[in-house]
Amino acid sequence: MSQEGTARGGGELFDGPSVDAFVHRAFMRGRGLSAEQVRRRPVIGICSSWSELNPCNSGLDRVAQAVKDGVTAAGGLPLVFPTISISEPFSRPSSMLLRNLMAMDVEQMIASSPIDAVVLLGGCDKTVPAQLMGAISAGKPALVVTAGPRQVGCWRGESLTVDDLWPLADRRRQGLVSDEQWRELEDCLNPSTGTCNVMGTAITMAAIAEVLGFALPGSSLPVATGARRLALAEETGRRIVAAAGEKLRPSELVTPAALENAVRVVCAVSGSTNAVVHLAAIAGRAGIRLSRAKLRQWTRDTPVLADVRPAGRHLLAQLEQDGGIPAVVRRLGDRMHLDCRTATGRRWADELPPDEGPTPSLRTVEDPVDADGALAVLEGNLAPDGAIIKRSAASARLLRHVGPAVVFDGVDDLHARIDDPALPIGPDSVLVLRGTGPRGGPGMPEVGHLPIPRRLLDAGVDDMVRISDARMSGTATGTVVLHVAPEAAVGGPLSLVRDGDPIRLDVPAGALELLVDPAVLGAREPVLPAGVPPRRGYDLLYWRHVSQAPAGCDFDFLRGAEGPGGGDD
Ligand code: FES
């Protein structure tokens, strides 16, 4: 039964006496729905990234049922549909390679299906930005329910969160964690479904969805397996029925003011550097350029207020108890645009909880965790189009540093040589990794958190300056400069660095400089990643159209165009 040539639309495609409408209803009746059910309006799509290949999102089937309950209770017709789902640990060569593919899948499914509005169910790092990007381009009202953080583990009497893995992995490399301990750790690192249980990329993106007005206020932090998450999902189901009638396009939520709010909240909670790339892509879908100058200003004058892991001390549960993201918004006060909409349809000014004074995990603007901000934008002759560092996760002694480069060309080279006893490297060296950017990686893999050479680890060195065109897990820490643009693979200055070249990092000044005479640099041949361009399929599409980090690594032909086949920005 073909409906080819039928115009795209919403739930009205089920209505009326036409053969097309008859076919829509009859096929839905074949699922076992009653005549009364198929006439319920609006029709709400529930776009699920549940997958057994994505353990972080594997609780979304329960969440989907709760959203369905809410939609049904409010009079709508809920229809769950799948898209691809991207798992951070399982997707190779990088999950970011697939984010735009998922965004295209989401966009086309929303736009092409007879639904009036959609609830997006995501969680693991790339799934939330991919869904937001797709929904913005599709143009139908959209809300988000995230998977929520997984439970906190316990190892040898201590609470265990996913960020504990990195120092333990270093200790394992040093031979300080036994096989038995390592097996025990595997048993208890992830005690439930849900996303990483610190302020990593997944929870940072959940907070962004909340701040932008896609997810209900207070919905980012409740644990994946708790009753509160199901109640929030049911409430979202009820809310989307009303939102469908308001016909608010997602791009109307992504305003310059809302984007500033999002960046400021990311900084206040010491969120993931990955959020900056995803926000640039989300902004781009709404036709807005997230400028480096604005980012620099917002990151500089937003203090760190939340003292949560991985950069701070407390668990997410404490931040939830202290009021969650709405409390962060309140504490930021006049730095925020409180007239921006939330997912309830009201303004942020109407959603703020009472300020009950200092709380364990959330400080005030007057007495912040860190007045100098969580993220810093860098630029200089090594990063003409910018780079970023998570200042709050770096070592204070390395924020101003000059040291000789030790260069690695790609991940294989890094792994082959990093622990070579003959590697000429010292604590002041600057580790440089290139060929790992959007095109070179491909997909900016999270390898920017280069391991400290074992010889130096054994000598007590716990941090070094590391620079790359890659990304870093939101759960990692260290003095790690990321997202250097343009990347080496397109001839950016990283491609000209040689072993021993002095590099200057000055985070307070926002500078990243290669201290080599321009004439010497001009005479050098760029070192480009080995390998040949992909020959076919999605890999070739990606290679041809991916943008650099400042543009969010989105495809050039997807920015700013609302609706499949829409115009350019
Ligand atoms: Fe899925 Fe961290 S690996 S959220």
Q: What would your notes on this structure say?
A:
- This protein has 569 residues and is of the alpha/beta class.
- It folds into three domains: 41-151 and 192-350, Rossmann fold, CATH 3.40.50; 153-188, no CATH class; 375-531, Glucose Oxidase, domain 1, CATH 3.50.30.
- It is 33% helix and 13% strand.
- It has helices spanning 19-29, 35-38, 60-73, 96-112, 127-138, 165-173, 179-188, 201-212, 227-246, 256-268, 274-285, 292-300, 316-321, 324-332, 410-417, 454-458, 518-523, 537-545, and strands spanning 43-48, 77-82, 117-122, 142-146, 153-155, 158-160, 375-380, 383-390, 400-409, 430-434, 465-468, 480-482, 502-506, 511-514.
- The strands form three sheets. Strands 7-8-12-11-10-9-13-14 form an eight-stranded mixed β-sheet. The protein has a four-stranded parallel β-sheet with strand order 2-1-3-4, sandwiched between helices. A two-stranded antiparallel sheet has the order 5-6.
- The longest helix has 20 residues, at 227-246.
- Mean pLDDT is 95; it is low at 564-569.
- The structure holds FE2/S2 (inorganic) cluster (FES).
- Sheet with most strands: 8 strands, mixed
> Ligands in the structure?
FE2/S2 (inorganic) cluster
- Average pLDDT over all residues: 95
Q: Indicate the percent of residues in helices.
A: 25-40%
Distance between the termini: 37 Å
Low-confidence blocks of residues: 564-569
How many helical stretches?
Answer: 18
CATH topology of the largest domain: Rossmann fold
Side-by-side strand order of the widest sheet: 7-8-12-11-10-9-13-14
By DSSP, the count of extended strands is 14
CATH class of the largest domain, named Alpha Beta
